[in-house]
Design brief:
Membrane topology: Multi-pass membrane protein
Number of helices: 21
Strand content: under 5%
Distance between the termini: 28 Å
Shape: globular
Structural class: mainly alpha
Order of helices and strands: HHHHHHHHHHHHHHEEHHHHHHH
Protein name: Major facilitator superfamily domain-containing protein
Largest sheet: 2 strands, antiparallel
CATH architecture: Up-down Bundle
CATH class: Mainly Alpha
Strand order of the largest sheet: 1-2
GO molecular function, one term: transmembrane transporter activity
Radius of gyration: 26 Å
Number of strands: 2
Helix content: 55-70%
Organism: Lasiosphaeria hispida
Number of domains: 1
Region (Disordered): 1-22, 263-294, 536-560
Length: 560
């Protein structure tokens, strides 16, 4: 009879985990990944404060109620294009590695924002945004990279709060930049003169700032971001070697200056050499941690003929055949629904706040028939969105790790999914508040939405990662998840813009919000059909806690 094992900590936080020595938290590589990532939300979010006015300047229509529809098309063009290539980028990352795909995505973002800044018509703006979506598949690849960096469940709450926090930080900077730098000739006339390039292209400056951020992100990625792919991370990376050399040179210069200032008469007897041997890495993904991150190396390190360190590769893992079991499919569906309604909120809120009160009052018949607007300018909207980003960052960093440890990822995701419909039902009633209470009401709704988003997204990511049978399937799984989310994010702004215009014309300004609330009900229903994920990390824990069993037992859902 097989002896009983002590229960281990599951993704839902049930049971008590036995004390064990954990591998070091991959702090350095997550920081580098965050520095590469932050430029993308800056570029993406910077357009929202001015997109309404940009569409109006295109002179497409004289009916201002139609502007929200075209603004939704511009926002959706990126995600429609991203949807069409997400699986391709995910599979490509499985073949050539995560790092090259991430860097190509950053390059595509930089090219896209530059072209968008030079847009003077709707077709050019649509093409620029679509180009960025075609060339960027980083959503799924980023999730895969984080999953490969984090090898134990105890690190997941911290690790999976990093990328949402980075997005929140970008959500602070992006709207501030977009709102402050759009139309610089009008807003900063002392610096930007009429008749200059900034007058001809009034929305170039915020996009130029975004392009510079992307360029910096590419440089950081080339020099310091390490490959995480199980089979590709053993290959030599000349970019990382150059980055390590630069860091070593700077450290030497500082050390020599400090030493000379203290003891100028002392001379070193032997030359110091702090540079690592070529081909050898010293951060979280190095061979010295292979016992905690992958298969155990069976051969000693040796020098090749060219004098470089010859790092033996682990045995190649078998690629799984049945990747998409029922649990994974349901998690991806709920991820798509989550992306649909949160993107709808993000795209609709600036338009909602920009809309002027109707010239001719439409008869009000509560609780459903009413129409009004706020008429806020770009600076006010940019400030509101930045406050949203600040709160989201704080919530992600402090709230999510604590709550997910107490409730577990699955229970937390179900709770948030159940609570979303009330948010969308209440939002349109903000226009009925007195003027002195409107801003307080807006901030209340924003805090409400941000709290839910910062808890829902990383919970869903943890569930999806823990359901993967092996690390080799992560790229494909996250690629399909990113494709689903991109399609949802594409339909969200497009459909919401159309419904918002219809609602304003008919006097039902809450139409789009209530329709979105119905979508969230479907997401809540499906979330209760998700079973407890069990994948590669559970098998690893079973193998570590059960010395009697010679092999990790197969995933219970791998062949479903």
């Amino acid at each position: 009879m097989r002896p009983k094992r002590p229960s281990t900590m599951s993704a839902t936080g049930r049971g008590a985990a036995p004390k064990k020595q954990l591998p070091p938290f991959p702090r350095r590589q997550l920081l580098i990944l965050a520095l590469c990532r932050i430029c993308e939300p800056v570029a993406f979010m910077s357009i929202f404060p001015y997109i309404y006015y940009m569409i109006r300047d295109f002179n497409i229509t004289n009916d201002e109620s139609q502007i929200s529809f075209y603004a939704g098309l511009v926002t959706s063009s990126f995600t429609f294009a991203e949807f069409s290539t997400s699986v391709f980028w995910g599979r490509l990352s499985d073949k050539i590695g995560r790092k090259p795909v991430l860097l190509m995505g950053l390059g595509g973002t930089g090219l896209s924002v530059l072209l968008f800044g030079f847009s003077l018509s709707l077709p050019v703006a649509l093409f620029a945004r679509a180009l960025g979506g075609f060339l960027n598949g980083n959503i799924g690849v980023l999730q895969t990279t984080v999953a490969e960096l984090v090898t134990v469940k105890e690190h997941q709450p911290r690790a999976y709060s990093v990328m949402p926090m980075v997005w929140c930080l970008g959500s602070i900077v992006g709207p501030m930049i977009g709102g402050a730098l759009a139309k610089p000739v009008k807003n900063i006339p002392s610096v930007f003169l009429p008749g200059s390039i900034w007058d001809r292209f009034p929305y170039l400056l915020p996009n130029l700032f975004s392009a510079v951020c992307v360029f910096i992100g590419v440089i950081i990625g080339v020099l310091f971001l390490e490959e995480t792919h199980e089979e590709k991370r053993w290959k030599r990376d000349r970019g990382v070697e150059l980055g390590n050399s630069l860091v070593s040179c700077i450290s030497k210069m500082k050390w020599n200056r400090a030493r000379k200032s203290k003891c100028p008469e002392e001379q070193p007897l032997l030359g110091d050499s702090d540079e690592p041997l070529p081909g050898y890495r010293t951060s979280e993904n190095s061979p010295q941690l292979a016992t905690t991150q992958g298969p155990v190396l069976q051969e000693p390190l040796s020098l090749a003929e060219n004098g470089q360190m010859d790092v033996p590769r682990p045995e190649r893992a078998t690629r799984p055949t049945g990747i998409f079991n029922r649990t994974i499919v349901l998690i991806i569906i709920t991820y798509g629904i989550l992306a649909f309604h949160t993107m709808t909120f993000d795209a609709l809120l600036p338009v909602f706040l920009s809309t002027d009160p109707p010239e001719h009052r439409i008869p009000t018949s509560l609780p459903f028939r009413f129409a009004d607007g706020f008429g806020y300018d770009t600076k006010t909207i940019g400030f509101i969105l930045s406050i949203q980003g600040v709160y989201s960052m704080i919530s992600t960093f402090f709230l999510f790790p604590t709550v997910v440890k107490r409730m577990g990822a699955l229970r937390l995701f179900r709770f948030i999914s159940m609570s979303y419909p009330l948010l969308y039902f209440a939002t349109p009633y903000l226009v009925l508040l007195p003027d002195n209470l409107r801003m307080a009401g807006i901030y209340g709704i924003v805090v409400w939405k941000c709290t839910f988003s910062t808890l829902a997204y990383p919970s869903n990511a943890i569930l999806l990662t823990n359901s993967a049978p092996t690390t080799l399937s992560l790229g494909t799984i996250n690629g399909v998840a990113a494709m689903t989310a991109s399609l949802s994010r594409a339909f969200g702004p497009a459909v919401s813009g159309l419904l918002y215009s219809m609602g304003l014309e008919s006097g039902y300004s809450g139409l789009v919000w209530w329709a979105t609330g119905l979508v969230t009900i479907a997401g809540a229903w499906i979330s209760f059909d998700i079973s407890e994920p069990r994948g590669r990390l559970d098998e690893k824990e079973d193998a570590e806690s059960d010395p009697i069993s010679p092999e990790p037992r197969a995933s219970t859902e791998a062949n479903q």
